[in-house]
Amino acid sequence: MELKTFKHVDYLWDETTASQLAGDEIALFLYRSNILGTDLRITNFGGGNTSCRTIEKDPLTSEETEIMWIKGSGGNLGSLKRDGVAGLYVDRLHALKNIYRGLEFEDEMVQLYQHCIFDLDSRAPSIDTALHGLLPFKHIDHLHPDALIAIAAAKNSREITHEIWGDEMGWVPWQRPGFDLGMQLEKCQKENPGIRGIILGGHGLFTWGDTSYDSYINSLEVIEQASEFIEEHLGKERPVFGGFKIDSLVQEQRKEQAALLAPVLRGLTSEENRMIGHFRDDEVVLDFINSHDLQALAPLGTSCPDHFLRTKIKPLVLDLAPDADLTDSDKVKEQLVPAFQQYRSDYQAYYQKHKHADSPAIRDANPVVILYPGVGMFTFAKNKQTARVAG
Hints:
Blueprint lengths: L14 H6 L4 H14 L10 E9 L6 E8 L13 E5 H6 L10 H7 L16 H5 L5 E5 L2 H7 L4 H9 L3 E4 L6 H13 L5 E4 L3 E6 L2 H22 L17 H19 L6 E5 L2 H7 L4 H4 L7 H7 L4 E2 L11 H26 L14 E4 L3 E6 L2 H7 L1
Parallel strand pairs: 5-6, 9-10
Antiparallel strand pairs: 1-2, 1-4, 2-3, 4-7, 6-7, 8-11, 10-11
């Protein structure tokens, strides 16, 4: 097997490990899922789906039938195991098209997936089940790589997709994941039978292959090509985020400021629930929080709905000088309270504007992501891992 080299993603396929799993498609599918989930540049924690198909004997008819094995609801690709997988009859998934009543009835389709279960030990099928089940491929990856989100969420996403891949990649506009989106992917693939994948506008990426390895390599190659395109065009027409507005403190000073401020922020974010904090001040964070465009871009919130589930709709940007005197915590708290009050008020207004009769109750209205220009990014959540993932 030719050794693959990539710059923007990690090639983690180990042929010795894979050879020990040869002949067990489900084991290879789990192996592929785990190594995809290891690279956090290409998978959100808890996000994305992978699937494979096998031919199994129907326990009632003894006839051979095609079964799709897919990551179940709520699982994480990096740690996915056999008990986190759902097994469903492919023909029954297609039969659901005969009773589908339209976009207004999407929620009932998730319940109907239970009638398609083959494996009685299955994890509950996710809302993305139809997106895999209605495509004809043996192995499928649905991922949310940073580079693909940048392209998928762009205003001219479709044009950029064609510029990079020509006729090799399909494109489907954003809509809520569900059965209808599965039919849109099926339609796109049937109308473009030679494509290697599909970009979902504002959402992410679908790629596939005849084997687990083929699907893995296809996914990495598409992500690498998207990353190369972005790198090639980065800063060509104008500096990234408009260039730097302020300079960062040196690292030691950033850490000192963060250590002084973190307890104050944790107290303010723990108004409803006790929180744990995480801090980052790497180059990617500093490029954004020190930029001319920060004040314009931060209020816009996230570009991908998969992200704001963990980060809230927007961050809180602190109006503090990088070298501000933070030694008097009571004085600092008094200075920051109005910004937190405004953030909570904005979040409550956002919830009231968009809620439906069956919407979940409003979440804790405090910010999850807090940006301190010149210093770094704080994230707060119920535990350290959730705070880190939000960051």
